[in-house]
Amino acid sequence: MLNEKNLMNTIRRTYQQQPREEFVVSTEKILRQKARSMDKRIQVKRLSAVWSGVFLFAVAFSWIFLFSGKDVLINALNNLDEGASSFVINSTKKEPLVFIYHTHNQESFTPELNGNSSENAFSDSKNITLVGKKLSEALNEKNINAIYDDTDIASVLNERDLMFADSYLISREILQNTLNEHESIKMVIDLHRDSQKREATTVKINGKDYARILFAVSSISEHYDINNEFAIELNSKLEELYPGITRGIYLPGESARNNYNQDLHPNSVLVEIGGIENSLEETYRTAEIFAEVVKQVMDDLE
Amino acid sequence: MINVKDIESSIVVIYNKHHLDVYRFLICFSGNQNDAEDLTQEVFIRVLKNLPNFNCTNNLKTWIFSIAKHVAIDHYRKRKFATIFREGFFKQLESNNKKPDEEYEINEMKELVHDAISKLKPSYRAVVILRGINEFSIKETSDILKCSESKVKVDYHRALKILKNKLHFATEEVLTNVK
Q1: Calpha distance B162→A272 (Å, rounded)
Q2: Domain spans of chain A?
Q3: Which chain B residues touch A14 with a CB distance below 8 Å?
Q4: Could you tell me if B64 and B22 are in contact, meaning their C-beta atoms sit under 8 angstroms apart?
Q5: Residue pair A297/A129 in contact by the 8 Å Cβ criterion
Q6: From B170, which residue of chain A is nearest by alpha-carbon distance?
Q7: Cα A270 to chain center, whole Å?
Q8: CA–CA dist A289, A135 (Å, integer)
């Protein structure tokens, strides 16, 4: 019977156990040839690596010492240094000094809207926040770091099912959060648009129409004295520089429904720039003027 | 033994030491001398190409055989055994120094053995040849085939059983035919 050993011997006998002699010789020859060409390829690789190293070194050497490479390198290193230090200055400067927000953010101007009805001078895009943006840009140009908030308070009211009169509750949250975040803020401006007619809200200075400014100070704010003083300072400086640009300080009666968030920061004021019938261009002009005054007051504060 | 700086002498030494074992593995696998020779050459060309990357801590022989196994299985996939069987198997099974009926008997036996082996699936075939013909240990076989030692044991016994069964009936048939 077949046992394992017999089986394997049978298998061995079945197959030709020796390759042909020519095959063995020719294969060895083929392997030798292939090995030689591999050797050459490896040597070529090694040599080309060495030579490209030498070449690169020569190029770098001649660039640095024979041409103007040394100066270029030194300049580049210096620039690197300067770039780093200017960045540090910027980052310390970044803390905002002025905060501009809009309790009635959708207040708009009829000349900018297609329908001319004065009751509907509201827009969710072309509105008072553009003036706030302009003011903050003007301040930043004067090196006073200002930030502004353009939260759509009207839609937040809608979401929370609140009335228009509750706008100050929403803007209060925004102001409170911002003050918590930035202790550096020295001035708070709640920017509005008045609802008076064009005659009341416009003034001609040097042949150009400017939107007029009105300040409002809450008499029930716990910071009333400082709030009022702050408004007076802004108002008188404006009056000095551009007579007729302000309409003065408005003090809503004791019955005023709220304090306009003026209890949160002593130097906070409600500012109305222009009325329903002013154009954005007219309010932008006024924003530039107002920025000048804010800068002066800020310089006095420091 | 492997000198990467002198690949030529290394590959010649390796080839002379191992070509016979590799050939014997491949002849059993393919059943055809021409194919076995071509495949043997293919194995050593692959060995040469990978020689600079060969990790000396590995066993050289098992490394060569794992290459041989790949070459064999690739070949098997390309051409099914049946076609090889038809082409060249009978032509090369020649023996000149036997008497006619002995010759007939032996040739028929060889044919049966080859038939049995060629019908084993490739993984069984590889185990039988490596363990039985090339006499690798279980550990070496498992290294070459990249499987566990227990799988080598199980596959080897199953493959042997299949072969024995086939050849048992076959030898009896052959013998009764002769008598």
Answers
A1: 101
A2: 20-88, 98-301
A3: 109-110, 113-114, 117
A4: yes
A5: no
A6: A2
A7: 25
A8: 9
> Shortest CA distance to A291 belongs to which of A138, A130, A133?
A138
If one counts every other C-beta atom within 10 angstroms of the C-beta of residue A279, the result is 17
Are B167 and A2 a contacting pair at CB < 8 A?
yes
- Please name which of B120, B87, B92, B112 lies closest in space to residue B175, comparing C-alpha atoms: B112
* B85 interaction partners in chain A (CB closer than 8 Å): none
Residue-wise pLDDT tens digits, B142-176: 989 989 999 999 999 999 999 888 877 666 655 55
Which of A28, A31, A32 to mutate: most B Cβ within 10 Å? A31
Q: For the packed helices A128-141 and A280-301, what is the interaxial angle rounded to 10 degrees?
A: 40
Q: Which of A272, A223, A267 is nearest to A250 (CA)?
A: A272
Give the pLDDT of residue B97. 52
Cβ distance A11 to B117 less than 8 Å, yes or no, reads: yes
Residue A207: pLDDT above 80? yes
- Does domain A98-301 match CATH 3.40.50? no
Q: How far is A93 from chain B (nearest CA, A)?
A: 59
Helices marked H in chain A: 4-14, 21-65, 69-93, 128-141, 153-160, 167-181, 198-201, 224-241, 280-301
**pLDDT on residue A285:** 94
| Min distance A53 CA to chain B CA atoms (Å) | 22
- Prediction pTM value: 0.46
Which among A54-58, A87-91, B94-98 has the top mean pLDDT?
A54-58
Other CB atoms within 10 A of residue A261 CB: 24
Structure tokens at A97: 């000094």
CB A156 within 8 A of CB A170: yes
> Looking at residue B119, what is its pLDDT?
85
Length of chain A as a residue count:
302
Interface of A with B (CB under 8 A): 1-2, 4, 7-8, 10-20, 23-24, 27-28, 30-32, 34-36, 38-39, 42
| Structure tokens, B115 | 């038939």
Q: For residue A211, what are the β-bridge partners? A: A202
Angle at B40 between CA B36 and CA B46, to 5 degrees: 145
- For residue A103, give every residue at least 6 positions away whose Cβ sits within 8 Å of its Cβ, in sequence order, or none: A153, A167, A168, A170, A171, A190, A192, A260, A261
Residue B79 clears pLDDT 70, i.e. is over it:
no
Q: Is residue A108 within 8 Å of A128, Cβ to Cβ? A: yes
The pLDDT of residue A176 is 93
